[in-house]
């Protein structure tokens, strides 16, 4: 539900609504995932037992599931940040973030941690990948929120230099903002499909 809200409001230059939508979706998803993580942690053996009636498999799977449940709540920020990047037309950064959890971080984590800790390393690989993906996503959404607050959420972003310098978003997002919001400013770079259609209709 966040992606169309982000797309229409970003295309209409209502950046405060983009920020409000991100906050709502992040908070609600984090609360939900935190509750699911607590339940999964508490009932991990029973959940694994549904799929395999083997004490050794249950013990191993329960440990892996509990490790995963600890970082489950990070997915709210990661997924919402990725949706926002896609809708804003920052395809490169969105692609990197989308591949991070199950590819860029997970595969090396399995290889390195397995060699270092054996089976425990394999069980820890996914939570480690989740934490690294979360850290990767922080500058994107946090940078947009900081810029939105700096400009009152409604004005042009062309002169804002408050985004973290270590984020790709600090260059790409600013160039995607209108040069003179509210004064007939043009969008200098491509937007997401929904945002582009909205801009044309305007």
Shape: elongated
Mean pLDDT level: 76
Number of strands: 0
Overall SS class: mainly alpha
In short:
This protein is an all-alpha fold. It has ten helices and no strands. Mean pLDDT is 76; it is low at 153-202.
What do these coordinates show?
This protein is an all-alpha fold. The protein is 73% helix and 0% strand. It has 10 helices and no strands. It starts with a helix and ends with a helix.
Any descriptors?
single chain, 202 residues, mainly alpha, 10 helices, elongated, disordered C terminus
Topology:
Blueprint: H1 2-11, H2 15-42, H3 44-49, H4 55-70, H5 75-87, H6 91-104, H7 106-117, H8 119-150, H9 169-176, H10 193-201
Helix pairs in contact: 1-2, 1-5, 1-10, 2-4, 2-5, 2-8, 4-8, 5-6, 5-8, 6-8, 7-8
């Amino acid at each position: 539900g966040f992606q169309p809200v982000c797309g229409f409001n970003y295309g209409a230059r209502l950046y405060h609504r983009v920020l409000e939508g991100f906050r709502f979706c992040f908070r609600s998803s984090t609360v939900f995932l935190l509750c699911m993580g607590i339940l999964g942690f508490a009932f991990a053996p029973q959940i694994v037992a549904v799929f395999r009636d083997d004490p050794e498999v249950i013990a191993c799977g329960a440990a892996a599931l509990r490790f995963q449940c600890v970082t489950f709540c990070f997915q709210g920020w990661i997924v919402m940040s990725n949706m926002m990047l896609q809708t804003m037309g920052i395809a490169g950064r969105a692609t990197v973030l989308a591949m991070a959890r199950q590819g860029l971080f997970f595969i090396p984590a399995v290889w390195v941690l397995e060699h270092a800790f054996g089976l425990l390393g394999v069980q820890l690989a996914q939570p480690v990948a989740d934490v690294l993906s979360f850290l990767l996503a922080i500058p994107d959404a946090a940078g947009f929120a900081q810029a939105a607050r700096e400009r009152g959420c409604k004005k042009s972003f062309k002169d804002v230099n408050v985004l973290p310098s270590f984020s790709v978003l600090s260059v790409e997002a600013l160039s995607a903002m209108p040069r003179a919001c509210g004064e007939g400013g043009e969008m200098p770079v491509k937007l997401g499909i929904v945002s582009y259609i909205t801009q044309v209709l305007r």
